[in-house]
Design goal:
The chain is mainly α. The chain contains 2 helices and no strands. It has a domain at 41-84.
């Protein structure tokens, strides 16, 4: 899958639209693939669960960092506006 990323101007009134045109089959097909890969293998199930937990923890870290940057940026902008007034 190819993902295109562009820099967002956070001052825009609304974020750009994103087209998620993969259809309704993406989730069920992914589940089917995962079930086939893990079938009859407790070791693979354990590995998959561990990978899923690591992935979720990484996403939490990513979004916490993003939130922190946004809040710090907002605070810097506010302090600059306060000093200019």
């Amino acid at each position: 899958m190819v993902v295109a990323v562009r820099r967002l101007d956070l001052r825009e009134a609304r974020p750009p639209s994103v087209d998620f045109s993969m259809g309704d089959s993406h989730g069920p097909k992914g589940r089917e693939l995962l079930e086939d890969l893990l079938a009859n293998s407790p070791h693979r199930v354990k590995q998959a669960r561990s990978a899923a937990c690591s992935s979720i923890e990484a996403r939490i870290t990513l979004w916490n960092g993003t939130l922190s940057k946004l809040c710090n940026s907002a605070n810097v902008e506010r302090s600059v506006e306060t000093q200019a007034a």
